Amino acid sequence: MKFDQSGVDALMEITARPELVFVRGEGSWLEDHNGKRYLDLVQGWAVTCLGHCPPALVEAITEQAKVLINPSPAFYNQPSMDLAKRITGASCFDRVFFANSGAEANEGAIKLARKWGRVKRSGAYKIITFEHGFHGRTLATMSASGKPGWDTLYAPQVDGFPKARLNDLDSVKALIDDQTVAVMLEPVQGEAGVLPASTEFMQALRELTRQQGLLLIVDEVQTGMGRTGKMFAYQHSGITPDIMTLAKGIGGGVPLAALCAREEVCVFQHGDQGGTYNGNPLMTAAGIAVFDTINAPGFMDSVNERAQQLSTGLLALSAKWGMKGERGLGMLRALMMDRADGAAIVEVARKRSPQGMLLNAPRADVLRFMPALNISADEIDLALAWLDEIIAQVRA
Ligand SMILES: *Cc1c(COP(=O)(O)O)cnc(C)c1O
């Protein structure tokens, strides 16, 4: 198949894309317009959590599309209620509002916290977030993010997101004033390069927010749905947050997200929140297929085995190449390199022949791994062997 440049020119330019078109995907593999196959360790940034086109997801979407796609969020539909019950049953949250992206779910979390502040905390509205955090690309979620440069990109920012430092409780305490309503964080900072909040920090943060009457919001857009080896990453520290957001893996590749909250926090009144596509049965049916696959007996055990295999393999590579080790939780891992050659490794991996490999470097000296949760042991071994070969080539 030919690469069609005219189509490229019809798209708004927002990022540098390689000159290839993906035409097909299956499990951990993608195929481009030339028929070349790629082992995919990015999976759309932890989105296609069951790999590409998993049969259970394809079937759920196909069957649902035949009967009902979107009756409007002004009416109940069965798949949305069935998925909401599954999420509340598996978590400490009582109610769910479905959205279409992580940014939209976080925007909803921010609105819910501000509304709660108006009703319960005499107008408190500030939400403490973290340096290098990532919460999405709407104006409010960009303001909540701590990505360098984002404070001025679309200035003026949305007000009320002072930044603390991850794993530094004093930096949080120093920011609390009578206008503070919540603290919001990713249990593992993904875009920042896979930086986990420590168990002690999560527990101390819960203690602090409880004492101060503040909400604790966990952004589990990247870490939720089994990614870290538990269904939700907050469960590693045994705490109960007040609000959680989900996206990415929850839809297995389709646009689905969720804002989850404990009953006491659900203060939206009619008209405060909504959205034309929110909670439509087509996407929530997809969500049910993903949820049930992840929660099938034995599935999470194998995720944890594969994660251990990946971790051990990355550590061995690190030792061999004199790198700085690896880190992460479950199937969200990073190789900490000794040099800033991440971009070169990503490119050489993609260009590898006859088969390529898709990798991600969130920072110049960090490679991030977000494989399908159901990647096989052989595929992980293959990825590690190829990575070794690619590092050798880049560093030759
Ligand atoms: C990807 C991501 C988002 C944004 O999700 P979108 O669906 O791209 O809007 C928000 N928070 C975290 C932690 C993410 O990883």
Automatic annotation (TrEMBL):
<dbReference type="GO" id="GO:0045303">
    <property type="term" value="F:diaminobutyrate-2-oxoglutarate transaminase activity"/>
</dbReference>
<dbReference type="InterPro" id="IPR005814">
    <property type="entry name" value="Aminotrans_3"/>
</dbReference>
<feature type="binding site">
    <location>
        <position position="137"/>
    </location>
    <ligand>
        <name>N(2)-acetyl-L-ornithine</name>
    </ligand>
</feature>
<keyword id="KW-0663">Pyridoxal phosphate</keyword>
<keyword id="KW-0032">Aminotransferase</keyword>
<dbReference type="GO" id="GO:0005737">
    <property type="term" value="C:cytoplasm"/>
</dbReference>
<dbReference type="GO" id="GO:0030170">
    <property type="term" value="F:pyridoxal phosphate binding"/>
</dbReference>
<keyword id="KW-0963">Cytoplasm</keyword>
<dbReference type="InterPro" id="IPR049704">
    <property type="entry name" value="Aminotrans_3_PPA_site"/>
</dbReference>
<feature type="binding site">
    <location>
        <position position="134"/>
    </location>
    <ligand>
        <name>pyridoxal 5'-phosphate</name>
    </ligand>
</feature>
<dbReference type="GO" id="GO:0042802">
    <property type="term" value="F:identical protein binding"/>
</dbReference>
<dbReference type="InterPro" id="IPR015421">
    <property type="entry name" value="PyrdxlP-dep_Trfase_major"/>
</dbReference>
<feature type="binding site">
    <location>
        <begin position="219"/>
        <end position="222"/>
    </location>
    <ligand>
        <name>pyridoxal 5'-phosphate</name>
    </ligand>
</feature>
<protein>
    <recommendedName>
        <fullName>Acetylornithine aminotransferase</fullName>
        <ecNumber>2.6.1.11</ecNumber>
    </recommendedName>
</protein>
<dbReference type="Pfam" id="PF00202">
    <property type="entry name" value="Aminotran_3"/>
</dbReference>
<dbReference type="GO" id="GO:0006526">
    <property type="term" value="P:L-arginine biosynthetic process"/>
</dbReference>
<dbReference type="InterPro" id="IPR015422">
    <property type="entry name" value="PyrdxlP-dep_Trfase_small"/>
</dbReference>
<keyword id="KW-0808">Transferase</keyword>
<feature type="modified residue" description="N6-(pyridoxal phosphate)lysine">
    <location>
        <position position="248"/>
    </location>
</feature>
<dbReference type="InterPro" id="IPR015424">
    <property type="entry name" value="PyrdxlP-dep_Trfase"/>
</dbReference>
<comment type="pathway">
    <text>Amino-acid biosynthesis; L-arginine biosynthesis; N(2)-acetyl-L-ornithine from L-glutamate: step 4/4.</text>
</comment>
<keyword id="KW-0055">Arginine biosynthesis</keyword>
<dbReference type="InterPro" id="IPR050103">
    <property type="entry name" value="Class-III_PLP-dep_AT"/>
</dbReference>
<comment type="similarity">
    <text>Belongs to the class-III pyridoxal-phosphate-dependent aminotransferase family. ArgD subfamily.</text>
</comment>
<dbReference type="InterPro" id="IPR004636">
    <property type="entry name" value="AcOrn/SuccOrn_fam"/>
</dbReference>
<comment type="subunit">
    <text>Homodimer.</text>
</comment>
<comment type="pathway">
    <text>Amine and polyamine biosynthesis; ectoine biosynthesis; L-ectoine from L-aspartate 4-semialdehyde: step 1/3.</text>
</comment>
<feature type="binding site">
    <location>
        <begin position="102"/>
        <end position="103"/>
    </location>
    <ligand>
        <name>pyridoxal 5'-phosphate</name>
    </ligand>
</feature>
<dbReference type="GO" id="GO:0003992">
    <property type="term" value="F:N2-acetyl-L-ornithine:2-oxoglutarate 5-aminotransferase activity"/>
</dbReference>
<feature type="binding site">
    <location>
        <position position="276"/>
    </location>
    <ligand>
        <name>pyridoxal 5'-phosphate</name>
    </ligand>
</feature>
<keyword id="KW-0028">Amino-acid biosynthesis</keyword>
